[in-house]
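B., you asked whether I could sanity-check this one before it goes into the benchmark set. Here's the sequence:
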Amino acid sequence: MWPGGMAVLSNGHVLVVYGRHAHLLNRQCELLHSKQLPINEPYNSFVVLANGLVVTKNISDKTSARLSVLNPDTLEPMASDIDCAEPSIARLSAHGNTVYVVGMTSVVRSGVLTSVHAFASDPERGVFILAFLGIVVGSSLLLFALKGPSMQNQHNGVGTANPEVASFGGLSREMMLLLNNILLVSSMAMILIGTLYPLIADVLGIGKISVGPPYFDFFFVPLTLGLMAAMGLAVFSRWKKTDSKLLQQQGAKPLLLSFVAALILPLFFIEALFSSSIAQLLASYSVTAAITLFFSLWVVLMSLQDLRQKLSRNRFPLNIKGLAASYWGMQCAHIGVAVCAIGVGLSSAYDVQKDVRMVPGDRLSVSGYEFSFDSLDSVQGPNYVASRAQISAYKNDRLVAVLHPEKRNYSARNQVMTEAALDPGLTRDLYVSLGEPLKGDAWAIRLHVKPFVRCIWLGGLMIALGGLLSVLDKRYRRRRQARQLHAESGVLAQ
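And here's what the prediction gave me:
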């Protein structure tokens, strides 16, 4: 079997696609990495894009071509595979970050392979991001510098600082806050390094480095799961010292319920659950979804248990009024983190995207939804002419959405733009976009079902609301007034 392609990269490494495998060799032709490609067919071509990513595809006159995007340094996937509408036996070609695939009857252009650092090519956005980081980081450091000297253990009345350092237990609330800060700062540093280092390496001429999902998943996921594990325990922690038996007692039931529910709930996302064999169930079962649900339910159940215990101390409405705004803010923010984690984890586990060839009248199934290509019309816009499709989405033979994606041609600059159609929902988002016109009345169409992605934004809003409620707590204003009165009384005494 002959090699499908061979190239020398900018760092001197040799990349070879041979059969179903990709191999990376150093300058001495010693093997560094090998990667088995997803389709059990020979791969005959690859291209290196302007952003450094490697794109390869299978060769077949029967199976539709599938593009795989690889990291040039590790050969790990950098994006989801992209299915083309037709088989392809020709080699790939590329211009910048756009890949061209010559199919059996048409040419497909894919411009979705954009580097995660593409924002750096836009000076206006880069300056805005830099200014935003300067304000956020600068104000945080300034606040710490102003308040740092007063962050000592206070005794003998308001405002009297004792220079002795206080001691805290390993499970105290202070230690939970410290752990929270360490994990969040570590996550921020990991993202900052992964985003800026490739840009710095490119500027210094070290070489083009691509950082993608493998790097962020390897570091960010464990840090986030550790944060959520500690978050569940934090609601029952006490200042200075917390009895470990208390945490064991309070966490036993939520831990068991979270574990059982996390094992069972992913089964309901499997199509044809009751008609599938054990082997099919195991193949379709998502471990990612189970882990996500376990940690998210752990945080939610621990928060709700703490809330139930506090509300049971008094009758309504005294039990509601007796809880401070900062407590409601904590509950809202903690549950918001769990909701956001559900959005990230489940959308990653059950995200389905297909690039298909359709003509008006065709009907295709994607992740339990039936998409019907109803019609295609020409539309005159203010400064463009568009081809607008009508695509109906059905769930269990019930119409759930009518989408109108467009392919716009702006005559002033002779630009062709894709206007995707979106049907949002709390449990799923449906995306449909028009690709390129194919032979006859056919079009390349992308159908995308992304479940629970709205939970990411909902969780973020809940976290922001929790922070706002904590800031509005009256107790903080009372303490500030007390310090001011104490300072004024000291001046009068002198």
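One thing to flag: The chain is about 40% helix and 25% strand. Otherwise nothing jumped out at me.
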